[in-house]
Amino acid sequence: MPTQVRGAFPKLLAAGLNHIYLDAVDTEQRAEEFSKLFNVETSESAYEQDAKFGTFGPLQEKPENTPVAYTNMVQGGDKRYVHLTYGLAVRTSRELYDDDKYGIIKKAPIALARSERYTKEMVAMNIFNQGFTNNVTTVDGVSLFNAQHPLLGGAEATNIGPGVGNVIYAVGTYPNRPAVDVDLSITALQLATNHYERLIDSQGMPITIRLRLIVIPPELKFIAREILGSSGKPGTDWNDINSIIGEDLAFMVSHYTTSQGAWWIISDKQYHYLKVYMRQAPKSSYDDDFDTDAIKQKTTMRMSAGATDWLGTWGSNGP
Amino acid sequence: MPANLTVHTPMGAVQTISGNTPLTAAMPELAGQTFLLGIPVQLSTTGFIQRWDGTTVAAGIAGITLQPGSNLNINGRGTPGWFSQVGPPAAIQTYGAVVNQPPAYNIAVGAPPTDGRNYFERAVSDTIFEGQFDNSAGSVAADYAPTLLDIGKEYGITFDANGTAYVDKAKAVSGTSTVLKITGINPVDAVQDGTPNTWIMNARVRFVVLPSAQQLYGG
After folding, report:
1. Is B106 within a domain?
2. Could you list the residue range(s) of the whole structural domain that residue B145 is in?
3. pLDDT truncated to tens, each residue of chain B (219 aa)?
4. Is residue B156 part of a domain?
5. Nearest by CB to B103, which of A78, A142, A304?
6. Strand, coil or helix: what is A189?
7. Which residues pair with A47 in a beta bridge?
8. Pairing outcome for strands B154-159 and B180-185
9. Is B91 within 8 Å of A80 when comparing Cβ atoms?
10. How many contacts does A have with B, using Cβ atoms within 8 A?
11. A150–B103: do the CB atoms touch at under 8 Å?
12. Contacts of residue B107 in chain A, CB cutoff 8 Å?
């Protein structure tokens, strides 16, 4: 294993430096973002598992003196969150640890904490980044952001849902992504809004979930500000009002997005199923190596992230 | 002239020369692997972990597995990517189908999880493994019991009919059939009559995988 020794850090051995610039101390890390997007829960198991059940369709007319029809609940699929362990350690010779005139080496725990915060953000945000692929699936077995989420109620569900045919791309499915990915625009926001205005449960009956927060990469910040902040219709010289303002949307820049064009909208946390499980909170520890007296410092944590259901989310991957 | 036993105790690390924890690895598993825990495994030609083929002695053994094969239907299925998640489906066993949702999975509560990887103790010169001694060409009791004379000798490994593996005294042609060197014999497996330096048939012997047989670290 690598070890930090004095030969690699001779500048720390003599007094006289005015200021030592240390990443983990002199630059400020961004405030935590993932907890604003995900429902953060704890776990005491190797994994957590969620299952979905669909209930019933609408009542059916019962002609006079005829028997009532019977129906069943529907058992849906499972979503399992298997926690992974993340860790990093540093080993420093006792001589370097003691001879460091500036206390830089002793700040390793601060630097490890920074690594831990980044890892948490990245693990969580990759649910968005990779949510357009089968790396991130929900109980229905397809990608989190998908133009055709199969409904437990099947084709009957989209037939029952009033006007659902106006917004879906395939019978028996419901979208939380456009059929062809689109850039962030007022038209695209209207499309997402329409999808959620027509939103149905797994059996086709309208439900209400309001999209609230647009999650964007930094590159889309100015466009988002124009769309949500303009009093008139954005991008036009018409006198129309900015109709999207009435949707009470806000935006949040995520600094852990990997695409410059992908963007998402989510509901308030209680209405979506984006989850982060902290199986073990970040834990730092250190020990001496008996033979060498070297100092070993370590940070580990266990966590998982995912989406049980697509409800309360909407996304477009660019294009 | 078969081996004395038809099933053998799983092999596994018991000591390290350095005193450190045995070096463990997790690598994506080849589809269709149903091997038992405690047997030698190797990297396939496509880079996935599979049961050791039993014949490749030159750089043939990656390590001794800590868990059974998961019988994955796709190579490495479920292995997490870059800061990514396990799965889907994240469990070895799924069953049935979900109404109107063909891609969805039913996972029985308690079904063993899988992350698409196999965990094994790497075959490195620092790690001392232990496995049962046997002889695929044995005929008399003495053929199956290790003695002091076996310590320091090179032998091979053979799979029995039940898929477990043993140290095979019959494979003793260095460079042709040998993959390990005996470093000791489990003292608990000495005969109970108090005779010193005498071990029972199929006693557990300790060994290191020969550098020439180590797939990942040898040479």
Report:
1. no
2. 12-79+115-213
3. 689 999 999 999 999 999 999 999 999 999 999 999 999 999 999 999 999 999 999 999 999 999 999 999 999 999 999 999 998 999 988 999 999 999 999 999 999 999 999 999 999 999 999 999 999 999 999 999 999 999 999 999 999 999 999 999 999 999 899 999 999 999 999 999 989 999 999 999 999 999 999 999 875
4. yes
5. A142
6. helix
7. A82
8. antiparallel
9. yes
10. 94
11. yes
12. 49, 78, 80
